[in-house]
Amino acid sequence: MAKVTLPDGKVLDVETGLTLAQVAEKIGAGLAKAALAAVVNGKTVDLSTPVTEDIKIQIITAKNPGGIEIIRHSCAHVMAEAICSLWPKAQLVYGPTVEDGFYYDIDLDDPIRPEDFEKIEKKMAEIAEKNVPFVRKEISREQAAQHVSGNRYKIDNVNRAQGDMISFYSHGGGFEDLCRGPHVPSTGNIGFFKVMSVAGAYWHGDAKEKMLQRVYGTAWPTKKELDDYLFRLEEAKKRDHRFLGKQLDI
User: Based on the domain organization, do 145 and 46 belong to the same domain?
Assistant: First the structure.
């Protein structure tokens, strides 16, 4: 047995081996349904993480600080899978979260255009609807280097990663990417999303490297939050002097 201390000081006695998702169920059905990840002894981890010792825990939902970032990080992986599905020759570089969204840098000779956004979103919706679990796999640094051999971008990511163990995440099919996580429990938890724009970006900002395609997206816990965000962007565009000048032929 292990003692699990909750934020309010309450202590639960649970069987070792239970996942944090199962611990959330013991706390309450509503919390378990909204749970995205957990903070254990100060570190944010996946809900699939098992309890192996006495811990202090806080279950993370979309209402907690950091919850929306986990949604967006996971949504970035779904967008990456959608792009790889539509453009099989695409090579993934990396895809962090940014303010109000996320991006993924893609090495792809075929240009991704704004008119392609709708089909990317459609494929993302198909992946989300399948509600496939995010699965974490940890292997040694040496194994990781062998696992990604031949992919200069992923070899570089392995070399830059910290620690002796390197983590990969997959969600159904053959999609997998090197990532430290954590992620939401499944693709059905990535919220409401939209592909926003595409731009050029050099690998590590080095102009001597090949120009990559940086695809931006945004994700929000609810459709209302997404709609409100898109409305704010439109209103800001209307007030933009460059936009107004163009409209007024100045």
Answer: no
